[in-house]
Structure formats: C-alpha cells, structure tokens
Recover the amino acids of this structure.
C-alpha cells in the first residue's frame, strides 16, 4: 500500500518562488556551555530487557555537566585525560574522560567505538558509562569511578585473593565475549578496583564489536607487551587471529604478573619492540613458579598456550578449579545464577566467530 500523500493545494501552486538572496543567521552556541549529547543508539545486539530497563531508569534524572566539579587528574590515555569529578547534587564521584581538540577520523572512530561499547554493556565487572557531553568542542564521557585505581604494579602472592580477582575479570570477559566484543588491550592498568574489592574492566578505546562474518580483528592496536604471539607475528597460526583467544593470553600474562610482582618474560614490559617480539614469539610461554599450587600452574598453562585453539575460553576458565574452588564465598548468589545461565558446559570449546 502506497503512503497517502496530501494533495497539492492551489495556494501552493500559485505561490511565488522565494528570493535566493535571502538568508537567516545561524544561531551561535556559547562554547562555554556544555551540551549533553544523546548516547549512541543500541545496536542490533542490544542488551536484554532487564539491562535496557535499568538504563532507562538511570536516565530519568540526567546528570548535568554544570553540576560537576573537576577535582584532579587521575590518568591519561589516547587523545585525552581522565579526571575525578564530584556531582554536587548527589555527592557522588565519577571519572570524566576528556578527549581534547579536533581529532583525525581514526581517533574519532576510536572514541565512538569506546562510547558505543560502554553504552551497551551492563555487567558488574565492566566499567559503566553514565553520560556524554560536548563541552566547547571536547567530547567528555562520564564514567563509573573506581576509588582505588588500577592494578598496575600490584603484587598478589596470596592465591585465594588472586583467584577472586581472576574470577571477576573472567566474569566480565565471558560477558563481553558472549556479546561478541573483544577488548584487545587487557593489561593491569586497564583493570580497576574499588574499596569494596570489586574489579572491573576499563578502557575500550581499542575494543571492537565483532560482526558474525566480518573482520578477523587483526589490526595492530593495543599494548605489545601483553599481546599474544600470533597477533604480533602474523605468520604464526597461518595468519588467523582469534581475538577472544588473544584476550585470554593477555589475561594469563596479567594474572601471572600479579603473582610474581613483575612482568613474566625475560625482558621488561617497557623494552623495545624487537626485544618484546623475540621474548613473546620465539621463546616458550612463561609458566607459574614450581612453588605455586597445582591449580594455579594449570590455570596459567590454560591461558598461555602458544596454539590459540588450545587456550581455554573465558567461559571454560570460570569452571577451572583455581577459579571455582578458591574463595567461592565471595562470589554472590546472583552472579552464580547468571553464570550458570550464561556459560556452556565446561570443556566445550565455543567457536571464535559464529
């Protein structure tokens, strides 16, 4: 059925043509005034109805940029800085990520990618996005604040504590991977913790949502020190890159670094590219020390397999004895219910793309 169109009126047909030299001045925006931007729309792989309803309820009282007091800088990253801010009306603290100036298209795409991912995620172990502003041409994103900062430089020799940390990271990773999201930059500085000992995955500036049949995600972004061998050297694994398995390698390197208190390879993580490539691609994967428990040594081995298909998935690692048996009381009943609804049976390898 064709849409009904209003019939042309006689007045419209006889109306004289407008003069082309008539113009109206465009309204000018005060650059000192911050304008809230609409969050990007949800993609086809939108979160569940419970996630959508929680987001809707949170948006009933939008946060105003004018009510934010910038306190001090707490970090820096690609294209900008991160500040701790106070929302005066509620007394709550947030992290404000500011992307400075006019960026190249590639940087703008990176910003939009981060915001889109943050917009759609709803998981207790992934940083939440609360608002988005345009302040004098600067894109500013209001994020959840983690009061104890990142885990960079932290040593955790106590295995039950390390198990709890690994469990939380895996819970976030399993959620992301189930939504076909690859982080691609898992490392200690992108793992944040608060005073309640909640660990959350942050910084999606180089993350990507994988389409079902496109993009093997083999572009060179992220931190080389925590990259998997096949990502650094594309000749490995017949040039096939599995982004999910790459995240698991990065997780294994990070967890082993927490246990040892140092980067687990023979070179420092700030070494030059050639030294890191030789250490990661040409030597055997690092192992947990002999004095560590059998379960921990097995867990690290399951993460740091040179052959990507042999690495366990995030869903499978949540069933690993090191994760499932140590400190299980700290895992809430609600998370246990969600976990069993979300995960496949243990030891069943899920395809990377499909």
């Amino acid at each position: 059925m064709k849409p009904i169109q209003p019939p042309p009126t006689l007045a419209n047909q006889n109306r004289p043509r407008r003069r082309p030299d008539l113009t109206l001045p465009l309204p000018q925006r005060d650059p000192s005034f911050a304008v809230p931007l609409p969050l990007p729309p949800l993609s086809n792989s939108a979160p569940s109805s419970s996630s959508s309803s929680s987001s809707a309820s949170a948006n009933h009282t939008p946060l105003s940029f004018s009510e934010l007091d910038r306190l001090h800088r707490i970090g820096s990253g690609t294209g900008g800085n991160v500040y701790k801010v106070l929302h005066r009306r509620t007394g709550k603290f947030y992290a404000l990520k500011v992307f400075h100036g006019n960026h190249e298209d590639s940087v703008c795409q990176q910003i939009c990618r981060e915001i889109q991912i943050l917009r759609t995620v709803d998981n207790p172990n992934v940083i939440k996005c609360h608002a988005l502003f345009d302040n004098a041409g600067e894109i500013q994103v209001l994020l959840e604040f983690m009061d104890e900062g990142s885990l960079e430089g932290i040593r955790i020799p106590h295995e039950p504590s390390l198990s709890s940390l690994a469990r939380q990271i895996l819970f976030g990773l399993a959620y992301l991977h189930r939504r076909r999201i690859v982080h691609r930059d898992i490392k200690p500085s992108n793992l944040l913790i608060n005073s309640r000992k909640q660990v959350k995955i942050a910084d999606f500036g180089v993350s990507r949502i994988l389409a079902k049949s496109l993009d093997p995600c083999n572009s060179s972004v992220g931190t080389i020190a925590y990259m998997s061998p096949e990502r650094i050297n594309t000749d490995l694994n017949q040039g096939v890159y599995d982004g999910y398995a790459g995240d698991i390698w990065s997780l294994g390197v990070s967890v082993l670094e927490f246990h040892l208190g140092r980067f687990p390879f023979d070179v420092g993580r700030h070494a030059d590219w050639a030294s890191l490539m030789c250490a990661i691609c040409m030597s055997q994967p690092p192992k947990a020390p002999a004095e560590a428990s059998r379960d921990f040594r097995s867990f690290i081995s399951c993460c740091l397999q040179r052959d990507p298909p042999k690495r366990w998935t995030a869903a499978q690692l949540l069933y690993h004895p090191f994760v499932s048996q140590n400190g299980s009381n700290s895992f809430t009943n609600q998370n246990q219910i969600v976990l069993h609804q979300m995960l496949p049976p243990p030891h069943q390898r899920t395809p990377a793309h499909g």
